[in-house]
Amino acid sequence: MQFWLDKAVAWGQADSPDTQKDTCLHLSRLRDFLQQLITHINNMSSTTETMKTLPFLGQFLGRLCWNPYVTAHATSRRLLFQCLWGLYTEHPCNAVERKANQWIRKVLCQLATEDDCGAVQTLMKHVGVPPEEYHLKVLRKRVTLLQQNIGKSCSSLGDMNQRCSCDSLLAASEACVPLVTCPEAAPLIGALLQQPVTCVRAALSENFLDALSSAYSSQLLLLEEQAVVSLWYHSLSSLEEAVLRLLERVLTKTGLTLQQLKQQLTESLLVDEGTFEGLVPTVTSESAGASRDPAVRGHHKVFDAWFLLVQCAHWVQAAVQLLVTSGPEDCGPLLWLLTFYHHPTNRGHHRALQLVHAKEAWDHLRSLFVAFARPPPVDRLQSLVTLLSSQPQRPSPSPLLILSLLVNFAVFFQQPLSGSTEILQTV
Amino acid sequence: MEAVLRNLAGTAELLAVAGRSGVVEQWDKQTLSRAFHWARYCEHVFTRFHNNPGMRRIMEKQLQLTNQSLQAAFPAYTDVSFSDLSQCQHLLLVGLLNNPELPSSIMKILFDSPANTKQTEHEDVSGLCSHIIQCKSACKVLSPLTDVSAVGADAEVQGAMLMEELATLLSQSSEACRTEHFLDSVLRGCDGAAQHFCLVIAAALLTTTNPAAQTASQDFLLDWLREKHSELRHMCSTSPPALLIDLSKQHLKFRDAYCAVLKKWASEMEYSMSDGEWVQTSTNQTSVTFQKLAERFLALLKACPSLREDVVKELNVLKISDGDFDVRGLSVWGDLLSVINKCP
């Protein structure tokens, strides 16, 4: 507690660049601490008791309320207010509690309604603009100004001695740490993420990327599609988060209709609708007729998604391993992922057929390994060999795919090693 | 019309109740939403009719009546004027949050935070205060990065709003004095914050978002400014010189006014033998050295080359009237002229 109290005192209202930077650095840890405080406050039977255990709590919370870096971020603001409400007593029975109530109301009232500059208020009254609208306009103006500054490209190309506008990128990204949950700041954050890295100095603050990542996982981030994809490029952990979330959603929901599955996959931005078309076994007139207007854009996104998947190949590995142990109901999306990895393009719309073949291969392998018959049935093995040695012509799935399935089955399937070895040797 | 007046009266009563009555104890989320709905309604009414003198008068009369009856009902009641209506939601919020009888449950609704940033309904009362605080804080967080420019985002926004209002006034009324009154009252309102006011004026004059509509408004503003001698002087001495140059480049009238101020400053200087330099005599002005004054002249002439010939001619005339000596320290005009002539 003392550590954080000292910090709060040192930060003040975050007026100097040092205090601003320090606040940003500690924001996520502060959130954890506030969460701990809430638990502590809730465990106490009354505010009087809480104040006995933490006499400086009021001072601490009060200081944080006036630090805009703390109040700008949705989560830290929510936690801070929760602490305050935790100290509020519906039926106060002594002076301490009454005073606490009064103080809490006063602080909240001031935060929401007071304005620093009287002259501004008068001017706004004269032109008939309410304070809320004014602040919103100023915020949007600031965001636009910064966006324009960032847009200015840099031509120093790696010359460390030349000064360039990219220095401001780092500062801007650092300042945006508390603003990751602020919808009005989204254009600025998007611009920062999509700024091409042309110069050694054009780096985004690590703290900023972490803050974005955690806002993304709490689903508090509101960015445009392009910006989200750019985030994945910058921060591998947020990409992993996205893939993990997708797999979780897709695998844990049994009985997903095809439409729902499609929605899940496209919402995740990892898959583009055009790519998904192959999953629809019966070509309805809708999906056949509808030519995706931004077709080029579609291909771009497909490539982007595939490229990212390749960079995170361990996800594909995980999918293959899962295929060994999953049942026929669950294998659909996993097979899809595997097929996509090996055949990202969908020329001739053979994806559906490829998937059917992939499923056949999987069934094959499964029955091969499940059946404890020794020696393994020759005809099964024969067809497997055929699949493996066949030319990689569409629509059959690539031999590599079959091979990786085979190897994984051999390694991970629950059966004596000898059985697996025999199958492998024979094949 | 009847309905509108009734609603205005009703909302004024609502404001009084919200701020002063224990009735708020009974309020729930629905009541709260309705209250803010009516406040928004009044804001719309204001926007619609504030530049319509006839309608405005009728509404002001209604409010006067309502105020009288509310005065009787609530001790220390403060009147609600028509112009207050532009900030009706804010007034409602201030009243509620300052009302000790307001249940904490209602406050919690106002300060609630959304679970995720799915677009909340535009007119949802829940989290209203949270959003306001987020907005104000975000402004403060971004201010160190953006306010390095001469004018600053706040002043730009205020300047733009000022221009909008001017344009509306000028288009709607043929009497120039109404618009003058408006500017005068704005100036009075900024009493004690003269520098801020100067920045806003500068920003207003530099707004370029809507050139067609702007010329008339900016012209009017310039004419008005030229008559306000002390404000103009203050503006020239406290604003960043680069800003003044920008203004001079954009507006001929400002260029001439600025030049006139510089000449006035020069005329107030006396040569001090002990310092070996020209110094300002009057002490109640922001001090400017001869060096700085000369720099400003040079900067102005560099930015507005068309001015040069006239200025040089004028300075020459003044120098001649001072005796036409080429010795330093005898005529401020001569000394200025020699600095100017050195830098073509």
Q: What does this 3D model show about the protein?
A:
The complex is a heterodimer of chains A (427) and B (344). Chain A is built from 24 helices and no strands. Chain A has 427 residues and is mostly helical. In chain A, helix 2 (17-43) packs across helix 6 (74-86), helix 9 runs parallel beside helix 11 (186-194) and helix 20 (331-342) crosses helix 21 (351-370). The longest helix of chain A has 27 residues, at 17-43. Chain A starts with a helix and ends with a helix. The relative contact order of chain B is 0.06. Chain B contains 16 helices and 2 strands. Chain B has a two-stranded antiparallel sheet with strand order 1-2. In chain B, helix 15 (308-321) runs antiparallel to helix 16 (332-342). The longest helix of chain B is centred in the N-terminal third of the chain and has 21 residues, at 29-49. In chain B, a hairpin with a 4-residue loop joins strand 1 (269-272) and strand 2 (277-280). Chains A and B meet through helix 5, helix 6, helix 7, helix 8 and helix 9 of A and helix 2, helix 4, helix 5, helix 6 and helix 7 of B. Chain B: This is Fanconi anemia group F protein. Chain B: It comes from Nibea albiflora. Chain A: This is Fanconi anemia group C protein-like protein.
